[in-house]
Amino acid sequence: MKLNKSLLSCAVAIAMGTSFASYADTDNKSASSSQLSTKITTESVENTLTLSQTLSENNAYLYQDGDSNTMLVTTIGNNNDTEVVQNQFGNYAQVITTGDNNTQVYSQDGVANGFISEVTGNNNMLFVSQFGQGFFVNNEAINIVTGDDNLIDVEQGNGGHWFYNMDMQGNANEITSLQTGEWHEAEITMLSGDENTLDLVQDGYWNTFKVSSLQGNDNELEVEQDGDRNAVAFSAISGDANEIEIEQDGLTNAVTFAAVIGDDNQIDLDQEGSLNTIESNLFEGSNNEVSATQVGAENLMTADLIGDNNELTSMQNGDLNEVYMGVIGSDNEFSSSQMGDLNSIHLANFNGTGNDVDLVQSGDENTMLVQSSYPDVSLTSNDNDIDISQSGSQNETVVTLAGILDSNNNQIDISQDGTLNLVDMMVEGNNHSIDISQEGEGNWVSGIEQSAFLVGGENVSFSVTQVGNDNLVEGSVIGYDSTVSVTQIGDGNTATITQM
């Protein structure tokens, strides 16, 4: 169900009866001429309260109790304290702050309330709290921040709340948001600057967090969602040395990255529950670290990466898990571990040099597919280290390196422990070292779509060790100065190797 998010426009129309811009203009309003302490209390409906402060060290306490009230506060100066309280239905507050060292507290308790704050300056502290059920007519809090070293703390409870940072420009700002209940949404449309910190906690049902654009360096984003049907989406991340940590606990959780561009970024993703997905369109850069952990059933993790010296780690514990990695680059490290049933790992477009691949599966009916030069078979992949381990029943491994041009100096180690294990490969190039070990019943080293495996090139070392029953080795090793070793221990073994 998609909720109505037009609260602000409705609240402004109900509470003000005129345009938003007419109240935003405070140039002609009377200003304070001396230090003062202001306390204003209004208990009624459809009231409008306007306060303008222009000097330093001012204090204001504003309270409205009723429906469809409007509050407009403008503070220009230093060391001002402003507290705004609104209760009941359809209230709207707008606070504009320009100056240094301001502390502001805003509280709304009820339904269909809206709040907008515009902060320009440094070292400001902004505390926003909204409470009240809002499943169909939600409460909204919007912050627009320009400046450095600002602190924003937003707390929303009971359900049906929306929190937006429309345009945040500056450095070393800190945003903290806590949303409890159901039907919450938090969104950052633009965060531009360095060394900013965001800490978001959503606890309930059907929570959403979105980042439309993050531009800058050394930013820290930490998101925690606890409940069902949670979603985190990043449209664009551009910058270096950013840290992103996302933790989801519940059912039907999703994390999506549209694009990540930059170097030395660290991304940690943790999902616990069922029907979890992690999807990335593109990571582009160098020295990035991405770690994804999924605990539960029917999990999916996909990532596409362009760059060098990156680390990509995936761990899945549960049933029906699937991992896909599309990679172009050199000196990258890829690690994937799956523990459970019906797991599959697919590493494709593996073009580059000096990459390290470590893939582990423990469970039943696991499959692994490592493809270099796919779908462009004219590309090569050299000096890579591929280590594959499968423990369980009906494991299947397929390795394809190159198609037109040779891929050279690759180390391939495959270990299978279980029943009905199968290894197929087509490797072309020189100076490869291939070691296959199978222990169990019905092990095969042969072709899947075709009748046999194929290894071509010079100075290739090809070794197969099989321990078990009904083993089969069938294929061709084509080239010069190559060495083939086949060891079979068990009953009914067959070995057919063609060297040309």
UniProtKB/TrEMBL annotation:
<dbReference type="GO" id="GO:0007155">
    <property type="term" value="P:cell adhesion"/>
</dbReference>
<comment type="similarity">
    <text>Belongs to the CsgA/CsgB family.</text>
</comment>
<protein>
    <submittedName>
        <fullName>Curlin</fullName>
    </submittedName>
</protein>
<keyword id="KW-0732">Signal</keyword>
<feature type="signal peptide">
    <location>
        <begin position="1"/>
        <end position="24"/>
    </location>
</feature>
<dbReference type="GO" id="GO:0009289">
    <property type="term" value="C:pilus"/>
</dbReference>
<dbReference type="Pfam" id="PF07012">
    <property type="entry name" value="Curlin_rpt"/>
</dbReference>
<dbReference type="InterPro" id="IPR009742">
    <property type="entry name" value="Curlin_rpt"/>
</dbReference>
